[in-house]
């Protein structure tokens, strides 16, 4: 089973740990995953929330924290592949991308909107870029623009299906559509990517994401033509995850019926664990006393609540006031493990499944 090639580095395993904000995937988790041979991803969403000046100057705090978190992750995995997840919807998107490149991140994965001008920031650098897409149409539109405007072919493609956690690139009515399933979209995009590889002579890894739970899922998507997978929720329930113990226990205690689709102030549907906060927000709005200017598409006057505050409350373990994003399979997680044990288990399951298929 091959790893994933990013520039002049290749991961030992075909596993990417998905970026989870606010503060869920920081240096500890990303570093541990990279050390074990996967690709570790730090979320830039309000990455500086622990900085002393975050409340007064969130932009400065976030930009400063990028270098700090990457440096700490590199100490854990000096030779590993480490990158950042950056939401296109972030108000300071351009500045955050520039800082990640300046800090020499190996990889930038970018979604929550199409990163149509992302190549301009990395041309001439060693940082590689991967857009997150949810349809063949989005892939064709984006790759065509990158090539036409920047003569830049994507370094990797992440396909995020409707079973992912957090913000979703679908309308609510599309979440259960067979045509939007990760399987269907993966097969469509793999075929298009292989054509693009042939015409550009560049290898483009395809990564399947959203609802990947175990080694059987990994084997399934590798058999569909993907080069690797991205998992997020499974990594929350690890000792190395940067979130609080109460955050992790919210996953352990969740059942399938606790997982809900919500309306986010960002303007997208999202998947989260139902709790007192979500129940309140279905009935009333929460007064916003401070705006962090985090998301371009959030309008404070109309927003039902402040998503930054809700996510910070969550990562700190406030079970009644936090917003706990999760993937569709969070209810299947029943214990806290370690990153090495989890990754070894995933790969063992995947290898067994693949060997039986031969």
Please tag this protein with its features.
358 residues; alpha/beta; TIM Barrel; 2 domains; eight-stranded parallel β-sheet; three-stranded antiparallel β-sheet; 13 strands; flavoprotein; Probable nitronate monooxygenase; monooxygenase; oxidoreductase
Description:
It is a single chain. With 358 residues, this protein is an alpha/beta fold. It has two domains: 5-242 and 334-357, TIM Barrel, CATH 3.20.20; 245-330, no CATH class. The protein has helices spanning 27-35, 58-76, 93-102, 136-150, 182-200, 215-223, 233-236, 245-253, 276-281, 307-315, 339-357; strands at 5-6, 9-10, 15-17, 39-43, 81-87, 107-111, 128-133, 157-160, 166-167, 206-209, 228-231, 259-263, 269-273. The chain is globular, with a radius of gyration of 19 Å.
- In the CATH hierarchy, what is the class of the largest domain? Alpha Beta
CATH topology of the largest domain: TIM Barrel
Oligomer: single chain
Q: Please, what is the average pLDDT? A: 94
As a percent range, the share of helical residues equals 25-40%
Instruction: State the end-to-end CA separation.
Output: 13 Å
- Major beta-sheet overview: 8 strands, parallel
């Amino acid at each position: 089973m091959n790893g994933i090639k990013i520039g002049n580095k290749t991961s030992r395993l075909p596993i990417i740990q998905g970026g989870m904000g606010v503060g869920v995937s920081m240096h500890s988790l990303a570093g541990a995953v990279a050390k074990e041979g996967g690709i570790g991803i730090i979320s830039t969403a309000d990455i500086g929330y622990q900085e002393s000046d975050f409340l007064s100057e969130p932009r400065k705090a976030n930009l400063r924290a990028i270098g700090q978190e990457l440096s700490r992750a590199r100490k854990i995995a000096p030779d590993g592949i480490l990158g950042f997840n950056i939401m296109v919807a972030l108000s300071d998107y351009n500045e955050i991308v520039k800082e990640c490149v300046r800090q020499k991140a190996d990889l930038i994965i970018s979604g929550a909107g199409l990163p149509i001008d992302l190549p301009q920031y990395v041309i001439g650098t060693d940082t590689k870029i991967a857009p997150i897409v949810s349809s063949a149409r989005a892939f064709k539109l984006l790759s065509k623009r990158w090539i036409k405007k920047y003569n830049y072919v994507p370094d990797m493609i992440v396909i995020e299906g409707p079973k992912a956690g957090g913000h979703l690139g679908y309308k609510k009515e599309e979440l259960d559509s067979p045509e939007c399933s990760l399987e269907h979209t993966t097969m469509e995009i793999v075929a298009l990517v292989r054509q693009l590889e042939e015409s550009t002579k560049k290898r483009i890894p395809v990564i399947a994401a959203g609802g990947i739970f175990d080694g059987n899922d990994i084997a399934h998507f590798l058999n569909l033509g993907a080069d690797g997978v991205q998992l997020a929720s499974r990594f929350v329930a690890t000792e190395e995850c940067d979130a609080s113990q109460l955050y992790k226990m919210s996953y352990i205690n969740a059942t399938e019926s606790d997982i809900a689709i919500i309306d986010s102030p960002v303007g997208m549907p999202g998947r989260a664990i139902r709790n007192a906060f979500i129940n309140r927000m279905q009935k009333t709005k929460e007064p916003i006393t401070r705006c962090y200017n985090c998301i371009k598409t959030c309008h404070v006057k109309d927003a039902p609540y402040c998503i930054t505050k809700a996510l910070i409350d969550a990562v700190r373990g406030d079970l009644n006031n936090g917003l706990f994003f999760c993937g569709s399979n969070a209810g299947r997680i029943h214990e806290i493990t370690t990153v090495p044990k989890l990754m070894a288990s995933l790969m063992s399951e995947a290898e067994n499944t693949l060997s039986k298929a031969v």
